[in-house]
Design goal:
The chain is of the alpha+beta class. It is built from 4 helices and 8 strands; from the N terminus they run αββαβββββαβα. It has a domain of about 130 residues: Peptide Deformylase (Alpha-Beta Complex). The strands form 2 sheets. A 5-stranded antiparallel sheet has the order 1-2-3-6-7, sandwiched between helices. Strands 4-5-8 form a 3-stranded antiparallel sheet. The radius of gyration is 17 Å and the shape is globular.
């Protein structure tokens, strides 16, 4: 098992680790000292980066592990985001998704400076293991479902730009600061009026 440095760099789009499909974790490893230390470092990097989620490959740990959740700092940055408890998911597996989909502006710690208008299932059911090696299962909807799917994509070597179906739906982060003055219906009617952290049912 890789032993992470105390404060690993966040890998940026272009690093080969971010484009790999990563292997499942042995449940027997979860309670080992090295694994628990890596979990602590993963969460700390998420909090330091003010992210809603982070996946192990983003800090160079090639394991099917992710952490999601809203901290107080994140809530200040994205006041529209609903509360999502901080939680680890190990070997997460999506077992059901809804036919209904929704859209929002996605960003990523590993794709700095850019947002994309991305469509994903509105609801899902996921199972995996927590940081104590206990089996867990959850039904997630709306923004929480989206965060989970975004982070699971990282475990399969997929970044959110791969989910954007039109280049016009990728914008610089700084453009969000002037969203209210965008041209009418640009880049789509709903993309123009949906702030980061909220969901639109239509493109």
């Amino acid at each position: 098992m890789i032993s992470l440095p105390d404060s690993p760099d966040l890998l940026i789009m272009g690093d080969p680790v971010l484009f790999q499909q990563h292997q499942q974790v042995s449940v027997d490893d979860i309670l080992t000292d090295d694994f628990q230390r890596n979990l602590r470092i993963l969460r700390q990097r998420q909090l330091e980066a003010n992210g809603i989620g982070i996946a192990a490959p983003q800090i160079g740990w090639g394991a099917r592990v992710l952490c999601i959740g809203i901290s107080e700092e994140t809530k200040n940055r994205y006041p529209s985001v609903p509360d999502i408890p901080l939680s680890f998911w190990i070997n997460p597996q999506v077992i059901e998704v809804s036919k209904e989909t929704c859209w929002t502006w996605e960003g990523c710690l590993s794709v700095p400076g850019i947002r994309g208008w991305v469509n994903r299932p509105s609801n899902l059911k996921v199972r995996g293991f927590d940081d104590q090696g206990e089996a867990i299962e959850a039904s997630l909807s709306g923004f929480a479902a989206r965060v989970m799917l975004h982070e699971i994509d990282h475990l399969d070597g997929i970044l959110f730009p791969d989910r954007v179906d039109d280049g016009r739906l990728m914008i610089p982060n700084v453009s969000m600061e002037t969203q209210s003055s965008w041209p009418e219906n640009w880049p789509t009617m709903n993309a123009r009026i949906t702030p980061p952290g909220t969901i639109s049912t239509d493109r």
